[in-house]
Amino acid sequence: MGDAMELRHLRTFRAVARTLNFTHAAAELHYAQSSVTEQIQALEAELGSKLFERGRRLRLTGAGERLVGYADQVLELVEEARAAVDEERGEPEGDLTIGALETLCAQRIPALFGEYRTRWPRVRVTLREGSRGELYQAVQQSEMDVCFTFGDAPADPALSSAKLGSEPLVVIVPPGHPLSGKEELRPGDLDGVGFLATPPGCGFREMLDRIDGPVIEAEVGSLAALARCVAAGQGCGLVPALVEHAGAVAVPLAGATTDVTMTWRRRDERKPSVAALLATAYALSSTDSSSSGSSKVKAGAIDS
For residues 21 and 29, is the Cβ–Cβ distance under 8 A? Predict the structure, then answer.
């Protein structure tokens, strides 16, 4: 490899290799699509090999598949080198990317975001929203430093996680529904009750699947749509209490909660910017006890 290869070319290559889409990679990296194309072409010229087959669907060539592992190793070593220098200096600075589910971005993260930026102004913080799977993948692939989700983090020896608290779950029902007048529900109250659910693999669907009794009658692609469908009388739903219910009636489900989980790469724990974020999150979680469950935020994309 000659001197023309740049780290940004490898970062761009890795993003395109993962998404297999120049447009998506450009959006993720905040580049113009033409810049992504030019960087890939420059990398191919430097290596003397095509890295992608450009047909109806983009796919990696054999050379591209081999380069993916090396690109990951190079970029991980660069991050480790930066972390080592940061640790010696001790003062957090540089870039930090935080990710969270949409409802957590709106409800819990603003306080953390503001406190962290106030205390450590030399760190350039980026906040991204995504589904649970997208967030975990971004952390695993070193594209995000820390993410916040509901439920358990994936079992991965390269990751660490911590519970920052819990959110109560409620059953939302149409106005006038037989369950709407109850002060609290127990699982037995849900026997044979028709529910709307998010698709399989989503966190809230997994929570619903663990309760015996509800009958899933339809799947809805977002919490916002689910809440509106419930309000229109199409069925019931299970959501965190902090989500806006769009006119549906929210009834607490006895003992039902979901954990708020923070996840990061184990090898980054000593990186000052990450360590400072973890400490700030722990401190805020110890004082953020009771108010989160009663607040409402507008539901958007699936938070799972």
Answer: no
Measured CA to CA in angstroms, residue 71 lies from 30, 76, 159, 224, 283 at distances of 20, 8, 20, 39, 36
Q: Does residue 102 or residue 229 have the better pLDDT?
A: 229
Mean pLDDT of 263-273: 89
pTM: 0.69
Write the DSSP string, the chain. Answer: --TT--HHHHHHHHHHHHH--HHHHHHHHT--HHHHHHHHHHHHHHHTS--EEESSSEEE-HHHHHHHHHHHHHHHHHHHHHHHHHHHH-S--EEEEEEE-HHHHHHTHHHHHHHHHHH-TTEEEEEEE--HHHHHHHHHTTS-SEEEEESPPP--TTEEEEEEEEEEEEEEE-TT-TTTT-S-B-GGGGTT-EEEEPPTTSHHHHHHHTSSS-EEEEE-SSHHHHHHHHHTTS-BEEEETTB--TTPEEEEEEEEEEEEEEEEEGGGTTSHHHHHHHHHHHHHHHH--SSTTT--B---S---
Packing angle of the helix pair 272-287, 62-89 (nearest 10 deg): 70
Question: Is the Cβ–Cβ distance between 241 and 184 less than 8 Å?
Answer: no
CA pair distance 215, 192, nearest whole angstrom? 6
Q: What percent of the chain has pLDDT over 70?
A: 90
The answer on pLDDT for 292 being more than 50 is: no
Tokens matching residue 63? 């050379």
